[in-house]
């Protein structure tokens, strides 16, 4: 059964290829994903797919994402 995931990623996540890297990671995991820079300097990600794959995307974000990103906090809602 497919699930949806909403992520809000805080830290230095804009201007460091976080959105593009997150979309590529999601694609690698077989997920449908969109990622958007927000005015508050966060990145919002919405993804859909298998729960175990969505959890891997959450862990990838929490681990810091791409090389130059500095993730301070990740809020996630899986539904």
- CATH class equals Alpha Beta
The secondary-structure element order is EHEEHE
- List the domain count as a whole number: 1
Lateral strand order in the biggest sheet: 2-3-1-4
In the CATH hierarchy, the third-tier topology is known as Alpha-Beta Plaits
CATH architecture descriptor: 2-Layer Sandwich
- Overall pLDDT confidence: 97
Family: Belongs to the acylphosphatase family.
Enzyme class: hydrolase
EC number: 3.6.1.7
Pfam families: Acylphosphatase
Keywords:
79 residues; alpha+beta; Alpha-Beta Plaits; four-stranded antiparallel beta sheet; 2 helices; 4 strands; Acylphosphatase; acylphosphatase; Acylphosphatase-like_dom; EC 3.6.1.7; acylphosphatase activity
Give a quick rundown of the structure:
The model has no long low-confidence stretch (mean pLDDT 97). The chain has one domain (2-78): Alpha-Beta Plaits (2-Layer Sandwich), CATH 3.30.70.100.
């Amino acid at each position: 059964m497919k699930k949806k995931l909403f992520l809000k990623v805080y830290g230095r996540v804009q201007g460091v290829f976080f959105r593009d890297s997150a979309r590529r990671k999601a694609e690698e995991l077989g997920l449908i994903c969109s990622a958007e820079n927000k005015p508050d300097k966060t990145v919002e990600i919405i993804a859909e797919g298998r729960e175990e794959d969505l959890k891997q995307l959450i862990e990838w974000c929490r681990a810091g994402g791409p090389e130059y990103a500095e993730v301070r906090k990740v809020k996630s809602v899986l539904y």
